[in-house]
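Q: I have 123 residues here and want to know how they pack in 3D. Can you give me a structure?
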Amino acid sequence: VRVAESGGGLVQPGGSLRLSCVASGFTADYYAMTWFRQAPGKEREEVACINGVNSATQYADSVKDRFTISKDRRQNTVYLQMDNLKFEDTAVYYCAAARVQAMCHEVLDYDYWGQGTQVTVSS
């Protein structure tokens, strides 16, 4: 059972990236799937979540209207589309899965974490 992120890289301000989180050994559609990020010297921040109840989403204020979380049930994959990237979006992005039927704001613990993928926004 694992989750694996990919899609990070170097992008200029205003650019876009799409991160992927592939779930193996479980059905992501039934889990709360969340993207976190951690920048050097900063605490980990929850970025976006999609729940396993009704696929409702939740975003951090810092990324609202720029990032979109979605899932592909056939591919068992969760995506994070990141548009209009800013310098402050630079971080390692992690995917996590919670085996709970709950709204995103109710999730307290996560069962599976990926290794992370680096996103660097630089001119």
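Q: Anything worth noting?
A: Residues 22 and 32 are 14 Å apart (CA to CA). The mean pLDDT is 96.
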